Amino acid sequence: MSLLPLDDAPGRLPAAVPLPSPIRFGAPRLLRGALVLLPLLLIGVWAVLDWRTVYDGTARLGAADPWWLLVALLFTCLGWPAAACIRQGALPERLPVGLLVASQFAAGAANHVLPAGFGAHAVTLRFLQGRGIPLARATASLALYSAVRPIAKTLVLLAFLAAFPGLLPIGDLLPDERTSLVVAGVATLALTGTALLVTTVRPLRRPLLDALRCALTDVRLLHTRPARILALWGGAVAAPLLQASVIFAVGVAVGVSLSWVQVTFAFLAASTAVGAVPAPGGIGPVDAAVVFAMVTLGAPMDLSAAAVIGYRVLTVWLPLLPGALVLSALVQRKAL
């Protein structure tokens, strides 16, 4: 028997009034639809603005050796698994291989639209968060990825210099004093601006410090696992070698007589020198620097330009539309 006199109440309690069903607005669906179509729209705009590159590259490749172009295409395709290996090596958690490679293929399309790798990092960050990775750990993995790639490229470049001291004209490729001062000034301003931003903007301080602590913890943890070490550093070493191999194969297809060592050194030196310039996918500054390096090593100007144009066609324009479609599909499947 209840102690409360509910049984003697003059009538039944009124049933719970049903709440009205929540109104579903179409904004999220419209936003997702816009995100699906946005990569294709950006690709179309960029293709219209840079149509000369497509035309020149297609004309040059039309007379090239098709078998060597197939070899170059093979090296291009191997670049996405290499990037996926670096991404996996930068995280303790295991990621699904198929979706990881697909996300890197899609990230390549976004990376060639936005400067300084922002597009690829944004796609990867959304992918990692979709797999349940906390924001601090996902950000730390992006920072580790961004740090390992230039370190590995510099180590490979130093290894080439040590292994082939008489084959490579180092002095002709070194930047002059004015260029060195400009690079040093830009690097100093970037570091100073980052430090001021972190110290003055309080909402950024906590997330960045959390990401830094997480990064240091993950670096120690990852380097106790041989599989992660191999994926992280092996992928970072393989990535620039595969890119240089694409240029070499396209160069052979159009008639460049430089060896693989020379072409690889030209790419490593050029991309290391001007790779920090915030251009979409490095297009522009890196291209000019690679052509200059190949000409310095003895290749004709027109053939060097044709090799670099073919490299861009294979690594940028050919996978750009499929990459944008994969990016849209991943957004539609809510994997991003």
UniProtKB/TrEMBL annotation:
<feature type="transmembrane region" description="Helical">
    <location>
        <begin position="30"/>
        <end position="47"/>
    </location>
</feature>
<keyword id="KW-0472">Membrane</keyword>
<keyword id="KW-1133">Transmembrane helix</keyword>
<dbReference type="Pfam" id="PF03706">
    <property type="entry name" value="LPG_synthase_TM"/>
</dbReference>
<feature type="transmembrane region" description="Helical">
    <location>
        <begin position="180"/>
        <end position="199"/>
    </location>
</feature>
<dbReference type="InterPro" id="IPR022791">
    <property type="entry name" value="L-PG_synthase/AglD"/>
</dbReference>
<feature type="transmembrane region" description="Helical">
    <location>
        <begin position="289"/>
        <end position="308"/>
    </location>
</feature>
<feature type="transmembrane region" description="Helical">
    <location>
        <begin position="314"/>
        <end position="331"/>
    </location>
</feature>
<protein>
    <submittedName>
        <fullName>YbhN family protein</fullName>
    </submittedName>
</protein>
<feature type="transmembrane region" description="Helical">
    <location>
        <begin position="260"/>
        <end position="277"/>
    </location>
</feature>
<feature type="transmembrane region" description="Helical">
    <location>
        <begin position="230"/>
        <end position="254"/>
    </location>
</feature>
<keyword id="KW-0812">Transmembrane</keyword>
<keyword id="KW-1003">Cell membrane</keyword>
<dbReference type="GO" id="GO:0005886">
    <property type="term" value="C:plasma membrane"/>
</dbReference>
<feature type="transmembrane region" description="Helical">
    <location>
        <begin position="67"/>
        <end position="86"/>
    </location>
</feature>
